[in-house]
TrEMBL record:
Residues 117-142 form the Siroheme synthase central domain. NCBIfam families: cobA_cysG_Cterm (TIGR01469), cysG_Nterm (TIGR01470), PRK06136.1 (NF004790). It comes from Sulfurimonas aquatica. Belongs to the precorrin methyltransferase family. This is Uroporphyrinogen-III C-methyltransferase. The active site is at D210 (proton acceptor), K232 (proton donor). GO terms for biological process: cobalamin biosynthetic process; methylation; siroheme biosynthetic process. Keywords: Cobalamin biosynthesis, Lyase, Methyltransferase, Multifunctional enzyme, NAD, Oxidoreductase, Porphyrin biosynthesis, S-adenosyl-L-methionine, Transferase. It holds the Pfam family Sirohm_synth_M. PROSITE patterns: SUMT_2 (PS00840). Pathway: Porphyrin-containing compound metabolism; siroheme biosynthesis; precorrin-2 from uroporphyrinogen III: step 1/1; Porphyrin-containing compound metabolism; siroheme biosynthesis; sirohydrochlorin from precorrin-2: step 1/1.
Length: 430
């Protein structure tokens, strides 16, 4: 049952008297000053911080004759004597009364405010728990964009000149409130998600899922969340990139929180930059959460350090795949560099062409080479081979996989290899 019957309202142009000069009074004064409310203060003493308050401050003890014609009285003295005196004269003086932290005698409560210029959002617990109201206020503030102040100002100007287009205003507000977060989901191990990625997935209204997103990660999407599959498999592109961009814009423009789950890191051969640009051109808010790329996690999972003293002081990450299903070989000369590691993504199906170009360029045919597939997943595999033997090893290697070239491949014999939780659990049972 509600203890108090309340109705949140906005008061305007009220004459307000604040009684008190301590920390509690200061907090109320700061709220009113930020909101450009006219008020005056009376107190026998003021803490130093009151110097930042520009409203009139009278240095004296409060007397009932100080009420004058104030319509609102805020009592922040903490004095029961002042409270009793005000309550005794309240009816005949006809003012609204707020006694801080004494809700049973208050005519109104201060709400927890979010202020975006003249746009204000008030959260009230009807006096039950100011702490809860503040927590809810803080949560809302983290979600809403600061650009709301600009939009509200623009709409206010239009309204004052007689231009009122409700449909357009609604569309502009929805677009501004919507957001797309490009979530880097790493190699598929749910334990390798960042905390921010996990929270984003949990709070999204709709989730767009890539083909390479693991079942583990899909399982943490809340049951009631809309899921849209936009995975693009080699040779079977189910949704074109342009269409994905359009869909992201469409759902974000409805004011929804959209999580776009992308394997690895969104900006490492993940076309995340293209999606971010398309969204920003439509004034859609975009966040990007980094993920662990297979280019980094793959070698680690196989016990290979991409850079290590005595083995490699440089590292290159390249893609063997170009638009139109053509091969990229511009990086081949990297294989001739000393103390260098080259990691190739999307190259398994091009192994024959890579080796041919590398040998023609003068690369060492016996260069240590590794293929790591499904890095950090239960079905992870790794094959250690050489440059000249790569085509044979790649023929049966599971996809997706990466290729690692360089002396660092030899470290797989001495460095630890990644174990999934499933593997660890099986060992403990055994």
């Amino acid at each position: 049952m509600m203890k108090y019957k309340t109705l949140p309202i906005i008061l305007k142009d009220m004459k307000i008297l604040l009684i008190g000069g301590g920390k509690v009074a200061l907090q109320k004064a700061e709220v009113m000053q930020r909101n450009r409310v006219d008020f005056e203060c009376i107190s026998a003493e003021y803490i130093d911080e009151f110097k930042t308050i520009t409203s009139k401050q009278t240095l004296k003890s409060f007397e009932i004759t100080d009420l004058n014609s104030y319509g609102v009285i805020i009592d922040a003295t903490g004095s029961t004597d002042v409270m009793d005196e005000l309550l005794e004269h309240k009816r005949e003086r006809n003012f609204l009364y707020n006694c801080v932290d004494v809700p049973e005698v208050c005519d109104f409560f201060f709400a927890a405010l979010i202020e975006y210029g003249t746009l204000k959002i008030a959260v009230s617990s009807s006096g039950a728990s100011p702490t809860l109201a503040q927590a809810v206020r803080n949560k809302i503030k983290r979600v809403l964009p600061h650009t709301l102040e600009t939009l509200n100002h623009e709409l206010q100007i239009k309204r004052s000149t007689g231009i009122i287009d409700i449909k357009q205003a609604r569309e502009e507000a929805s677009k501004m409130l919507g957001r797309v977060t490009l979530v880097g989901c790493g190699t598929g191990d749910v334990d390798l998600l960042t905390i921010k990625a996990y929270k984003t997935i949990q709070s999204a209204d709709v989730v767009f899922i890539d083909h390479l997103i693991s079942d583990e990660i899909i399982e943490i999407i809340p049951k009631g969340t809309m899921q849209i599959s936009v995975g693009k498999q080699k040779g079977a592109h189910s949704v074109k990139q342009e269409k994905i961009n359009e869909m992201l814009i469409e759902y974000a423009s409805k004011g929804l929180e959209v999580a776009r789950l992308k394997a690895g890191d969104p900006y490492i051969f993940g076309r995340g930059a293209e999606e971010a640009q398309a969204l920003m051109q439509e004034n859609i808010r975009v966040d990007v959460i980094p993920g662990i790329s297979s280019a980094i996690a793959g070698p680690l999972s196989a016990g290979i350090a991409p850079t290590a003293r005595g083995y490699a002081t440089n590292l290159s990450i390249v893609s063997a795949h170009l638009a139109g299903n053509s091969i990229n070989t511009q990086w081949i000369d990297l294989l001739k560099m000393k103390n260098h590691t080259t990691i190739v993504l999307m190259g398994l199906s091009r192994a024959d062409e890579i080796v041919k170009a590398a040998l023609e360029a003068g690369a060492d045919a016996n260069m240590p080479t590794a293929i790591i597939s499904n890095a950090s997943r239960p079905n992870q595999t790794s094959v250690i081979t050489t440059l000249k033997e790569l085509p044979l090893a790649a023929k049966d290697a599971p996809r997706p996989g990466i290729i690692v070239f360089g002396d660092v491949v030899n470290l797989h014999e001495v460095l630890p290899q990644y174990e999934t939780q499933e593997e660890i659990s099986d060992e403990k049972i055994a």
